[in-house]
Please model this.
Amino acid sequence: MNIFKRRGLFALILVFVLQSSLFAKYLYKDEIVNNPKFNTTIELLGSTLYKKTGISLKLMMLRELPNGMTMYEYEKSILDKCTQPTILLSFSEMNQIVDIETNDKTLYKYFNKKRVLSPVTSYVQGFIMAAFYAKSWDEFKSMVTTTGGSILPLLGQKSKEMTTSNKYSAAVFNGYLDIAQQIAHAKNIKLGHGFDSEANQTSIFYLKIFFYGFLLYGIVMLIRRAIYRRRHRNE
Model:
């Protein structure tokens, strides 16, 4: 009887390990969100992309990088173990780093790394930021033309209604989806499951409304301040 119990316990442990290994195939590491729904969605999108393109898109979310290691070194230690064409999207909360690396440089032709990691979402926003922060003409042109960021603008948003964990999951998933969609477009395939190009337009739409609303508010306040100073100049 004890033998059967031991066998049953061993089988249960084996199933659990196999399921955990399979479940974490594309969400390589998550020390921040720990949300089953988030995990399931990443796994579905990652497995769908791999089945249709042969490209493995992995996600890593760290609380903090190991002491003394750079993000590139940590990513390389993971990518060196991957045998299939792999893209790794990485985020470290405490180090405030978002990065994308691959184990095959030819994979960059399927997506635009600079666009995904851009801090701006539109040409107008890019022009304004370039006007204030660009230190050279080349940097100005780069900031204006490299727009459409899908991660950093959401990470930079402040919302009382959204927890930090939810903001991280929304921003990182938006970037993960953006990369997958760009690959799908380059390969001329449909992802299905609601993951195609129109799937993340709502979040981008509301983000742009937020930005332009904030910009308009700033312009109105500048005008009001200028009028106030003019009226009280001689007082």
About this structure: The CA atoms of residues 201 and 207 lie 10 Å apart. The radius of gyration is 22 Å.
